[in-house]
Amino acid sequence: MITRATSLTALALGASIASTTGCAPVDAWPDDRVVEAPIVDGMRETGEPAVVALMGVTGLCTGTLIAPQLVLTAKHCIMPERATVPLPPGLLTVGIGDRVFAGTRSIGVREIMTTPGPLRLSSGSNPVAGATGTDIALLVLRERVTDVTPIPVRREDEDALVGSPAVAIGFGNTRAGTSGLKNRQDTTISAMTPQLIEAIETICQGDSGGPLLVENAGVREVAGVASFGVYSIASEVGDCPSDADYWNRVDVQLPLIDLGLLRAGECPPSDEPREELCNSLDDDCDGDVDEDCLALGETCTSDDQCAFGPMPEGAAVATDPEPVRCVDLGGGDRRCTIACDATRPSGCDSLARPLGLGRLELEGLYCRSVAGCDGYCAPGGPGALQNGAACTADTDCASLRCTALGGSSICTTPCVSGSGTCPLGEACSALVGSTGADACGFCVGAGSLPTGRGLGEVCDDASQCASGLCAIVDGSGTRTVCTQACDNDGGCPTTSFRCEDALCAPGPRGALLDPCRDGADCIRAATCVGDPGATYCTVDCDTDADCDGIARCDATSTPPRCVPTLSAAGAACSDDGACASGACIEGACAVPCDPRVPCRAGLTCRRFEDGPFCAVPVSEMPPTMEPTTCGCRATTRSGSPLGLFLSSVLALALALRGGRRRVSAA
Question: Cβ distance 458 to 468 under 8 Å?
Fold first, then answer.
């Protein structure tokens, strides 16, 4: 790209960077012109896979894979003129190969790291002498590149490199005007400044961000990152090459590069032995992270004892999960733990790791409620007691929730007000519209709540509903439930409800393999297919990869569609092994009820011996699915002693709260 002689510009190839900000005028340097700077008169390079192409809205640039998940490039390749922050990572793609697009393997960018402040290549009247040395950026990739050997950066003082041979590699323009092919040029380092390395007539537009490679004890290293070129008054601005070319020295940006290595899950090299700390990093470079630290759920006294604890200042970013901390769970019981959703007591089965390293599978933990919907992961697993039974601890209960009511405690199922997720014949004790700690309650017999029931909960007349509307809606079968008027899905209070026939129906529209009755039950991209009594939402496909790993692509259908490898929810079954969910209940596949999302269309949350499941409604079960006694899970019917008991304890609980809701026994 070419700019006027009065501006300093970088070497990216593309129309979206026309000039840069923060660049000083060259009035004191009238006989030179500075341009955005490719490899010129070089040799075609079909190897060097660690030198990669960077493609995005800023045009074509070059970069270097310096670690399996980290690319070094120029700041002006990822940060447009006058911008204060880099481009969104999703707009950039790294290509591995020897030519752009054709035969290039593309990898997405997870995170961009660069020097602070707006793009600024130089300060003062002399662009070279006043160069800031900050035209450097790092791209953390979405996946590790395991079949390419990275090229490390040079860590020694580079001042002694003057006169040394070097190699420049890039995808930029050639003298013939072509670009997008990887080329190399042997050159000699002609000069050094505190921020820059200089070589003569080597690079052009599109080579920006590319490496200047030098040998160090037989090992190739990246000494510089291609930044800009200078034209003399006798040259035609824009011709390739420029008269003098400049690379940012990497030895002056090692703190940023080392931070990038950390963010890419690597251990920066060090001459000093290092001790492993409990900070989510591999401090001692042995390939293990926090191996000598306390595990989640163990007793602790401080954060720095817990594995996957807080990262060093500056190493963490907003997209990282919350670190493990040492928290008092009550009564001085301090544990290494993370926050969790108390409405999902069994939701502590994995730990999200920082640095994009996936999740760590956990065992022997559950979410202990500390205040309303807030909880922390703690040691324990489900007990044998069913809802309504007296208990002393969460782990006594199959539901993992022991709720204190007056002078005693009973096993309960947690719920959220207005979510419509309690099993058939039950309602959530939390007041509709409540927030914070009051938004979470437990499921009780609906008869104990004569008024104020939430959306999706059963009703006999409008006076029982907080919304003032009781009707039969799609998804509720023949039952009347509390609902409200709507004109589209957005007219319902949450995304857990959909608009059907101008009324809010419980359950969002189905995605891949979710049950359905017709196309209206599925998201827009999906259709409803299958046999009577076993219909599900699906999408068109070309290969199994289009089916999200939970289905296979059936090429025999017209058009080819994703089909379940095991029976979807609602389909007939003979045993648990036939169902994708692993639960066959009363002759049909079922899925556990979600405490925050109602069952999908065609299923109803019903209480069974093993807990609440979204199952085929009793009123809609075909003859082949009638309840049996062949080891299938037993139901707890509405109006059973359990419902009556929960109704009475709810009345006691609300009385203790100050009588905010009038109740009556069922």
Answer: no
Taking the CA atoms of residue 31, residue 36, residue 41 and residue 44 in that order, the dihedral angle to the nearest 10 degrees is 170
Break the chain down into helix, strand, coil percent, rounded to 5: 10, 30, 55
662: exposed, middle or buried (C-beta count within 10 Å: 0-12, 13-18, 19+)?
A: exposed
3-state secondary structure of 427: strand
State how far the Cα of 357 lies from the Cα of 552, in Å rounded to an integer: 27
pLDDT at position 92: 92
Domain ranges of the chain: 32-261, 270-381, 509-635
Q: Kindly give, in sequence order, each residue whose CB lies less than 8 Å from that of residue 431, ignoring residues fewer than 6 positions away.
A: 417, 438, 452, 660, 661
| Residue 601 near residue 474 (C-beta atoms within 8 A) | yes
In the numeric block, the tokens 């002393």 are attached to 392
**Residue whose token pair is 């703190």:** 255
Strand-pairing partners, residue 55, are 60, 93
* Phi, psi dihedral angles at 159 (to 5 degrees): -60, -25
Q: Tell the residue number behind the tokens 């409990």, with chain if given.
A: 278
Give per-residue pLDDT as tens, 9-44.
Answer: 445 444 222 223 222 222 333 334 344 443 444 455
pTM of the model: 0.71
552 contacts 512 by C-beta, under 8 angstroms: no
Distance CA 472, CA 533 (A): 21
d(CA 482, CA 418): 10
E strand or H helix at 647, and its extent? Answer: helix 641-656
- For 405, the token pair is 């009511």
The whole-angstrom separation of Cα 610 and Cα 63 is 56
Is domain 32-261 given the CATH code 2.40.10.120 in the classification?
Answer: yes
Task: Select the highest-mean-pLDDT range: 217-221, 285-289, 623-627.
Answer: 217-221
Collapsing DSSP to helix, strand or coil, 438 comes out as helix
Could you write out the DSSP letters of every residue in 531-542? Answer: ETTEEEEE-B-S
Residue 181 DSSP SS3: strand
Residue positions counted in the chain: 666
The CA–CA distances, whole Å, from 109 to 139, 145, 147, 172 equal 6, 12, 18, 21
Q: Are 423 and 593 in contact (CB under 8 A)?
A: yes
Confidence check: pLDDT of 365 > 60: yes
8 A C-beta contact, residue 60 and residue 74: no
Query: Cβ distance 486 to 499 under 8 Å?
Result: yes
What's the per-residue H, E or C state across 314-349? Answer: CCCCCCCCCCCEEEECCCCCEEEECEEECCCCCCCC
Q: Which residues of 53-75 are buried (b: 16+ CB within 10 A; e: fewer)?
A: bbbbebbbbbbbbbbbbbbbbbb
